[in-house]
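Q&A log
Question type: sequence-to-structure
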Amino acid sequence: MVKRILLASPRGYCAGVERAVDAVEEALERYGRPVYVRKQIVHNGHVVRELEQRGAVFVESEKEIPEGAIAVFSAHGVAPVVHERARARGLRTIDATCPLVTKVHAEVRHYAARGFGVLLIGHAGHEEVEGTMGEAPDAVRLVESVADAETIRPDDPNRVACVTQTTLSVDETAEIVNVLRRRFPGIEVPRKDDICYATTNRQRAVKRLLPSVGLVLVIGSENSSNSNRLVEVSRDGGVPAYLIEDEGEIDERWLDGVETVGITSGASAPESLVRCVLAWFAARGVTDVRSQQFVQENITFNLPVELRRAS
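Response status: OK
Response body:
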């Protein structure tokens, strides 16, 4: 029987997600509905549905947006060709790409301009990866695993650079980078780690919970990379973990024999979802809720420049 809840902290919204959601809300307030958003603004179904109710229209491609309309690009970033197509359609764009993703784009351009082959550690098909590869498609090759790192053959092994998706497993990425350093001793890497502060902090906060809990619930959507990584961190540490969109997905059978449940949420999950999960447990008599603070986050990002210019 569950007796207590341990809340990981930090959890939930990061500065990049908050900025992106605020950008859509500000655009709706300023320009009225509809405001078109290319892809999900962040990877959370609840956030997307709430914005849809307020007048946001989510589309898969900029080609679906009426000419001259307001268009917001998601926090995950887009390739330069998307900007070009948007300009050709006369779209009034608001680029809500997370500044930490923009940093990785700039690194790719920098290395490619110097004639380096760029190895991008990331997951195929993820929007962030697609946007990053689009910065220099002829120069960038994707590395998804240690096995890939062991076998990939750059055109020039002496001119290789490495960048990463921002929402990866810290430990797994370190393994991949170590392999690449061994195989290519002269490999260039950015001075500052590409995995974002929020991803790193949330994974470390979960690790601190593990000795004290019998189960971890990660609140986040199935397509959220950083949320899935939190599940992996827990399972790799020997503690069962499940990804849930909200309290409606909790299976009470998971709780059999568990006294303490750890709860965290991915960087695109609003705190309101955490409160709903806590209410679910409270309705079943679990009122002992304790927070374990790992680190205090105080990072904020300004709204996209297009909205600041218009203010």
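Response note: Residues 4-13+197-293 form a domain with the Cobalt-precorrin-4 Transmethylase; domain 1 fold (CATH 3.40.1010.20).
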